[in-house]
Task: inverse folding
């Protein structure tokens, strides 16, 4: 079976689940998205790109952006990043605040919201226009100068920022936040509101499949060891309190977003993006996870 035939058959099977799950409601601008969209793109480290379904449609990348921010923070600060954020799974929903007070404002990992906000604070200190720096970074990674920030989604998130603001102010009270909270929040939301397609996303993550080097620009994005560390964090924390189940059933490092996208990496081989907006109870794409389960059962690649 060719890769395109395999993708087509996975698409047909996973699409039977369309209609299950629910589009994120807590960000009003995201609640308007048509839930029945579904796309898959695979990009191998030779730069070959294969897609099926709505793979060219841009969508809100949301928490997938946390990987780009972490990458830039690691480029700028190296190991100092880990003085302000941990590397342990939280086992709790992405926006939970429970551990944050118990652990004196040190977030468990960079992929829960509290951790991503600390990373956004690091980015705020490094760039004059942080969300533009990230946008330009992803444009280079995806080899697509058309990638944009959806300011309507960013504003909608800012208008409903109470929980993220609570996390940020709590960290500020513990001395783990250096910049103005409201500025960092706006830049964090703008980064989450970047719109990319499955094709853009799968291409932009080629560096994590390719030992830290971007397949499309040939640029070294991170040293090999740091790319491996990000993959490890994605494997343990990329899908929040579903990370264990995802490792068990799919077996790739992955990162999800409440826009319904999931990126998965098969190190040394390829990057995959699946997208379908309706989410399960842990905030991960319902059909997207089904597609990745099918894909991992058909292809004999697992990091385990
Ligand atoms: N922007 C979203 C938030 O902060 C990101 C959450 C996600 O995609 N899991 O709530």
Result:
């Amino acid at each position: 079976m060719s890769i395109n035939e395999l993708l087509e058959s996975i698409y047909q099977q996973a699409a039977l689940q369309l209609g299950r799950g629910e589009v994120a409601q807590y960000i009003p601008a995201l609640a308007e998205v048509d839930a029945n969209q579904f796309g898959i793109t695979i990009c191998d480290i030779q730069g070959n790109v294969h897609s099926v379904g709505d793979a060219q449609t841009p969508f809100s990348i949301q928490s997938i952006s946390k990987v780009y921010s972490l990458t830039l923070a690691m480029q700028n600060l190296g190991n100092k990043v880990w003085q302000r954020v941990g590397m342990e799974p939280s086992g709790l929903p992405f926006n939970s605040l429970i551990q944050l007070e118990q652990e004196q404002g040190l977030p468990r990992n960079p992929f829960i919201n509290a951790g991503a906000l600390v990373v956004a604070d690091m980015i705020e200190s490094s760039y004059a226009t942080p969300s533009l720096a990230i946008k330009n970074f992803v444009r280079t990674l995806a080899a697509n100068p058309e990638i944009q920030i959806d300011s309507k989604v960013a504003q909608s998130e800012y208008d409903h920022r109470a929980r993220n603001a609570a996390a940020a102010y709590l960290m500020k009270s513990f001395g783990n936040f250096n910049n103005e909270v409201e500025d960092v929040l706006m830049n964090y939301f703008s980064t989450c509101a970047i719109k990319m397609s499955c094709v853009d996303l799968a291409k932009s993550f080629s560096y994590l499949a390719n030992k830290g080097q971007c397949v499309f620009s040939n640029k070294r994005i991170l040293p090999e060891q740091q790319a491996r560390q990000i993959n490890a964090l994605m494997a343990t924390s990329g899908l929040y309190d579903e990370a264990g189940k995802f490792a068990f059933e799919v077996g790739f490092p992955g990162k999800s977003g409440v826009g319904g996208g999931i990126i998965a990496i098969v190190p040394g081989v390829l990057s995959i993006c699946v997208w379908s907006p309706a989410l399960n109870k842990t905030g991960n794409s319902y059909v997207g996870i089904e597609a990745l389960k099918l894909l991992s059962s058909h292809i004999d690649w697992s990091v385990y």
